[in-house]
Design brief:
487 residues, alpha+beta, 6-stranded antiparallel beta sheet, 3-stranded parallel beta sheet, 20 helices, 9 strands, 13% strand
Length: 487
């Protein structure tokens, strides 16, 4: 028998659990008990009081950014056009020679570096306010390692879905890419995020000699690690229940384990299996259940943080349930730094899924209500998470703008957030990329607002704030946002 009766029980239980899209709520309408909420209130109030006494806020910097003209060619002599670019042809001369090339001028471009698969470090350019495309990589070192960007070309060639037609993409810099200091009033919001969401930890942990554990929901396999104590523990259970009829009811499983716990041999095997699981990082949900119930919540939490659940499809709720279990255990232990990361992941649907189109929105939409009941300043937290910075802490929490916008719309009171949103959009002392980001955040927030009259009021404020954006940028972003409003 390769799997114990406990595993069988849990696979049945999981199958039932994953058919639901909502986490179970208590009578208070929350996914945590009142006792837990009160416990976390004390922690939150203490943290926010301490933060109010912080005198030094780091001077964060924006992402490296500039302006460029963007060209796409998929017809004509692409090889000759590429040769001209490599010979540093002038931009106006290029347009005259290739009039069929599609062009967008004065595009905000953000530069970053990453480790590529074939070319070592490459430069990635994200085109922030563009209709035709979002980003591409430049791999020729002679074109991106240059102190002076202005008048420089960068290019990329390839084939893209859906027709896989050969194309040439090129950017011609009209200004140098530079960083800009984030104004103090916005830096304080970023710092608040790092204070509340502890940057010294991550939700999931690396295990010595092993990367993150991957668990596929219906892949019922034993761990491939060398785990003699773990194996002996389950072998003992198998031998003890060999003649018993398999019953998936929890009462049977609990009573069965209760009987075994009276045996010295079982307790010894269980203790050794727990220590081994903690040491090597065994991925086993049913064993985590046993550890929580018969050993300690602390050890169960540790094991859960060493196992990432990958959803098999966008409707698979296994990742949501797993991260909720981490949040629940963290609250019961009083471990804020783990709880907040797990709960924020619930709120933002920051899960690992195949084909994660975020098509499944729960009835609750977000779980921001729980944080509000804990008296957390959610407006500050959400707006702070939206800023893009280059020098944040290693584990600085980031999230997609549309998910932050949805969470803001689910807040009770958003007056503070609205002030930050519209101030950032019109603030010429803030870098252009972050202003574009907040323009999009405002649109997501407005889109998720249910009150139609309120929507119109917010759109008027948005158009007023966007009037301070560069004309071409405002026109492109507005066009994209009009499409957003039709969703």
């Amino acid at each position: 028998m390769t799997r114990s009766i406990i595993c069988t029980f849990f696979m049945v239980l999981l199958a039932c659990s994953n058919s639901a899209q909502e986490l179970i709520e208590y009578p208070n309408g929350l996914i945590y008990h009142d006792t837990t909420i009160r416990k976390m209130q004390k922690i939150v109030e203490s943290m926010q009081t301490n933060y109010s006494k912080v005198k030094h806020v780091p001077n964060y910097k924006s992402l490296k950014q500039g302006l460029c003209n963007y060209i796409i060619m998929d017809t004509g002599d692409l090889n000759q056009a590429l040769e001209d670019i490599m010979n540093k042809i002038g931009f106006e001369q290029f347009l005259k020679k290739y009039p069929h090339a599609r062009c967008q001028q004065a595009v905000t471009v953000v530069e970053s570096h990453k480790l590529g698969e074939r070319y070592g470090y490459v430069t990635r350019y994200q085109l922030a306010d563009l209709e035709m495309g979002d980003e591409f990589d430049i791999t020729d070192a002679s074109y991106y390692y240059n102190d002076n960007d202005e008048g420089r070309w960068g290019y990329d060639t390839g084939r893209e879905y859906p027709d896989y037609k050969l194309h040439l993409k090129a950017i011609y810099f009209t200004s140098n890419c530079r960083q800009q200091v984030i104004p103090a009033k916005y830096s304080s919001l970023v710092h608040f995020v790092d204070y509340i969401i502890d940057t010294s930890t991550t939700l999931f942990r690396y295990v010595t000699g092993k990367q993150y554990a991957k668990h596929w929901l219906y892949d019922d396999e034993m761990p491939t690690l060398y785990t003699p104590f773990f194996d002996r523990f389950y072998a003992y259970i198998d031998s003890a229940c060999h003649c018993r009829r398999v019953d998936s009811k929890s009462k049977f499983c609990d009573s069965f384990i209760a009987v075994l716990l009276k045996q010295d041999t079982f307790r010894h095997l269980f203790s050794n299996a727990v220590q081994e699981a903690i040491r090597v990082g065994i991925e086993s949900e049913d064993f985590e259940y046993l550890v929580e119930k018969y050993d300690s919540k602390k050890h169960a939490l540790q094991l859960k943080r060493e196992r990432i659940v990958y959803g098999t499809c966008m409707e698979d709720d296994a990742p949501r349930i797993h991260e909720f279990e981490i949040a629940r255990l963290a609250t019961e232990i009083g471990l804020w730094r783990v709880f907040i990361r797990a709960h924020i992941s619930l709120m933002n649907e920051n899960f690992n899924r195949h084909n994660d189109l975020s098509a499944i929105w729960t009835e609750r939409l977000t779980y921001i209500k729980e944080l509000e009941e804990m008296h957390l300043q959610t407006n500050k937290l959400l707006t702070g998470m939206a800023f893009s910075i280059s020098d944040g802490a290693a584990n600085h929490y980031t999230c997609s703008i549309w998910k932050i916008g949805r969470a803001l719309a689910d807040c009770k009171n958003t007056e503070y957030a609205e002030e930050v949103l519209f101030a950032a959009i019109s603030d010429t002392t803030l870098d252009l990329y972050n202003r574009i980001v907040f323009m999009r955040l405002a649109m997501e927030y407005i889109h998720n607002t249910n009150d139609s009259l309120r929507k119109q009021e917010l759109l008027i404020r948005l158009k007023k704030g966007a009037s301070n954006l560069p004309p071409l940028t405002a026109a492109r972003v507005s066009k994209k946002d009009e499409e957003l409003q039709k969703r």
